[in-house]
Automatic annotation (TrEMBL):
Residue segments, region Disordered: 1-20
UniProt keyword annotations, A-Z: Membrane, NAD, Oxidoreductase, Transmembrane, Transmembrane helix
Pfam families: 3Beta_HSD
Record-linked InterPro entries: 3Beta_OHSteriod_DH/Estase, Lipid_A_modif_metabolic_enz, NAD(P)-bd_dom_sf
PANTHER family registered for this protein in UniProt: BIFUNCTIONAL POLYMYXIN RESISTANCE PROTEIN ARNA, SHORT CHAIN DEHYDROGENASE_REDUCTASE FAMILY 42E, MEMBER 2
Protein name: Putative short-chain dehydrogenase/reductase family 42E member 2
TM segment ranges: 377-396
Keyword tRNA processing on entry: no
Domain of life: Eukaryota
Amino acid sequence: MNAVATSYRRTSDGRQSKYAGTPSKISMRAVVTGGGGYCGYKLGCALASTGASVVLCDINKPLWATPNGVVWIQTDIRDYSAILAVCEGADCVFHVASYGMSGTEQLHKKEIETVNINGTRLILNACKQQNIPRLVYTSSVNVVFGGLPIEDGDEESLPYFPIDKLVDHYSRTKSIAEQMVLAANGSALEGGGILHTCVLRPPGIYGPEEQRHLPRLAKIIERRLLSFKFGDPSVKMNWIHVENFVQAHILAAEALTPEKNYIASGQVYFIHDGEKSNLFEWLTPLFERLGCSKPWIRIPTCLVYASATFMEHLHAILRPVVDLPPLLTRNEVQNISVTHTFRIDKARAQLGYRPQKFDFADSVDHYIESRPQPSNYQLFLNILLTLFVAFILVFLSSKLDNLSVLHYFKGRH
Ligand SMILES: NC(=O)c1ccc[n+]([C@@H]2O[C@H](COP(=O)([O-])OP(=O)(O)OC[C@H]3O[C@@H](n4cnc5c(N)ncnc54)[C@H](O)[C@@H]3O)[C@@H](O)[C@H]2O)c1
């Protein structure tokens, strides 16, 4: 607890905020769960730069140095006594931590459920016990998108996608956690007062030093595993730059205060850059900077979906021996091949959210400049993987008509 107290005393004086619409000075004691991860860390640093004192609570240490006003405390959000200690004296919790969003993590059901559902429950309980009046929850567009097209959807008209029909544990658990957070809005705090909660639903996040999507996509492209494209070229999705993500979170926390009439209390908001694009077009700078040609072979989405199903099963069978990451999961195939775009009018109107313009190519440049060069062993592995995937695709093509999963997928479109 000393570390927390020390960090709180180190509250810096007000410096100018570079985040549009956010106050230039924030006197807040904030806890950021998942603060060791990309977005949580950036959020914590931005809060500190505006004068807040910040505790990053995460099982993992941030990859980057913590500036003045920020302290990292190793905390598992499934450990209630640890959370209680970290939350003591805080004014606002940004609950950013999650598990299982992409790649092989998506298949680790038990970890996903304990972190995303149980962890969220404990965080909410800690807010009530430690009299923390504000909680901003980072959710995901996946709570409403489950593989059926959504064009310019808004918060009021889109229902939750039925939980039992979501194909991945991450989306299912984010949906359950989001609903728990909203249900907790208005709960009594133990020392008097009320807990105000709100939810932000970002799409895919990008930015310099992003660790989750960009390095993985680059690897896949370099291994020529993305030599094919799938899905209709008119399919669109949104993205959000990490600085816009940060801006929205700071504004949401402000909008849970009496000064802002608690306007965000019990509300959900879609947030993104205010643009939509086709994934394969959007990735053009990455293909170019890696010196790889853009995919020109178009293969049926149902074939890719079948491969993803096969790879998920293979992963489950082999997991006791080796954790073989699937190239794509079913959820990722849906994300790429089905339009899902959202309106951000509500965030603009109620939070004052004003997304700044960013170029994905800048994040790619940053990645290319800072990454280590691939070794000969990695190049050899790339060739092996390319052959393996080619084999699976040929095998599945020959079985195409016999796979019931394809009939299922075809039936949805
Ligand atoms: N990255 C995206 O494209 C994207 C898209 C939509 C929504 N989101 C949401 O945004 C949030 C942040 O995403 P990110 O890209 O920074 O992810 P990230 O993986 O970089 O960060 C998540 C952090 O949570 C931490 N964590 C996991 N289990 C924990 C536990 N038991 N206790 C404490 N900490 C734990 C991890 O160590 C990690 O540092 C997440 O809630 C995610 O669901 C992300």
